[in-house]
């Protein structure tokens, strides 16, 4: 008959005063304040108090339009450029230019597309579906 021993380890987090009674400054709280600020801004617009301005590109998580140099039937870009002229110059420096093509990748506002909580009624959202009410 064999008798086995089981050894377990328990780890306890020490209470060292890192978390105080004050409000957390984590990213979630910052995001909530920004969202609530935008919602209140739009509510004040309905009251006629303020005229809102569009979000900045940084607030919209903007991705600029780029031009991808593609080779043959490949799916991945050989190189991506911020302007079409530079992409054309790159192809011009290549030997056999006929096997390259340029694919335009339109810019996007990532947050407006699917992450902004006021996107449904924001008049500055380029992706908003407008009803004919």
Can you describe what's shown?
Mean pLDDT is 75; it is low at 6-17. The longest helix has 20 residues, at 27-46. This protein folds into two domains: 26-62 and 111-133, no CATH class; 65-106, no CATH class. It has helices at residues 27-46, 57-60, 84-92, 110-114, and strands at residues 62-63, 66-71, 79-81, 100-105, 108-109. A hairpin with a 7-residue loop joins strand 2 and strand 3. 29% of the residues lie in helices and 14% in strands. It is α+β, with helices and mostly antiparallel strands. Strands 3-2-4 form a three-stranded antiparallel sheet, covered by helices on one side. Strands 1-5 form a two-stranded antiparallel sheet. The relative contact order is 0.14.
Uncertain stretches of 5 or more adjacent residues = 6-17
Query: What is the molecular shape?
Result: elongated
Radius of gyration: 26 Å
Number of helices: 4
Please tell me the overall pLDDT: 75
Class by SSE composition: alpha+beta
Q: Structurally, how many domains make up the residues?
A: 2
Helical content class: 25-40%
* Helix-strand topology string: HHEEEHEEH
Strand adjacency order, main sheet: 3-2-4
The end-to-end span amounts to 82 Å
Proportion in β-strands: 5-15%
Largest sheet: 3 strands, antiparallel
Q: Strand tally, please?
A: 5
SSE blueprint:
Elements: H1 27-46, H2 57-60, E1 62-63, E2 66-71, E3 79-81, H3 84-92, E4 100-105, E5 108-109, H4 110-114
Antiparallel strand pairs: 1-5, 2-3, 2-4
Which terms summarize this structure?
133 residues, 29% helix, single chain, 2 domains, three-stranded antiparallel beta sheet, two-stranded antiparallel ribbon, alpha+beta
